[in-house]
Amino acid sequence: MQRLESIRRQIGSAEDLYSIVKTMKALSAVNINIYEKAVHSINKYFKNIETGLQILLKNNPEILRRPLEIKEESIGVIIFGAQKGLAGSFNLTIVERVREWINKINIDKESSLYICSTGERIAEQMKDIEPLSEDHTSLPFFHNNSDRVVQDILLKIEEWRFEKNVSKIQLFYNKPSRGNSFHPYTVQLFPLDMEWLKKLEKKKWPGRCIPLYTLETEKLFNLLIRQYFYISLYRSFIESVASENASRLMTMQKAEQNIEERLNDLNIQYNQQRQKAITDELLDIVAGFEALSK
Q1: Phi and psi (nearest 5°) for 182?
Q2: Are 86 and 248 in contact (CB under 8 A)?
Q3: Model-level pTM?
Q4: What are 15-49's pLDDT values in tens digits?
Q5: Mapped to the 3 state alphabet, what secondary structure does 221-251 carry?
Q6: Which of 39, 1, 14, 80 is nearest to 259 (CA)?
Q7: How far apart are CA 167 and CA 92, in angstroms?
């Protein structure tokens, strides 16, 4: 009976865990759909920013010929990690990408390297990466308030640029792929990609004439660049959360399969033990009856 009670308790625990896994799986599937729609809307907004820059550059191509201000090499790194647990290898994928990037660029010992990440889990996993641990800011995640997260990162970027003379900012996050998969992605947030701006300037305008604008060129350019920074961070953050849910969905699917196999094994063991217990009781009854008959 002790063996039967032990198996029954294991079956109960497995069924409770199975219920949690199915709930997490359903929530992840719903969240993926929500964030995919958000990414689609953000991409449309990003196209509007590109259109504004295209108009400005076609009317003022001299902007691309301005000399760049050269400062002491300091690099800022922004990383979007998992905000919750049960996301499988989501954070490890990004950590490995950051490690590869650091080894590839061969950072000079005299250079300063700053890092800002969202989510405390990835901060713990990056402690063994040098020299990122020297100046690491971990920003809290505000549930259902992505604007707050992006605003905090923008403030950190302003601090880097004007107080620490950061001349380059690199962004790392997981980007959704087809289906429920994702892959690590890296983008240079600052300085702006000049090749991208040149392509915008040379891109054919779809209409008959280029629209006019009334704002001062410098002011309009600064406003568009600020919007570019904001929407790039916002899109990256939303894509990261969508990838996180995709990772969690895959993890829950594997966990669900493992639990189903475990429950099947436990039920087989339980039935075998129960049948054995019944057989033993019947044999005891038969043996007792035969003893009394003698």
Answers
A1: -155, 165
A2: yes
A3: 0.78
A4: 888 888 888 888 888 888 888 888 888 888 999 99
A5: HHHHHHHHHHHHHHHHHHHHHHHHHHHHHHH
A6: 14
A7: 27
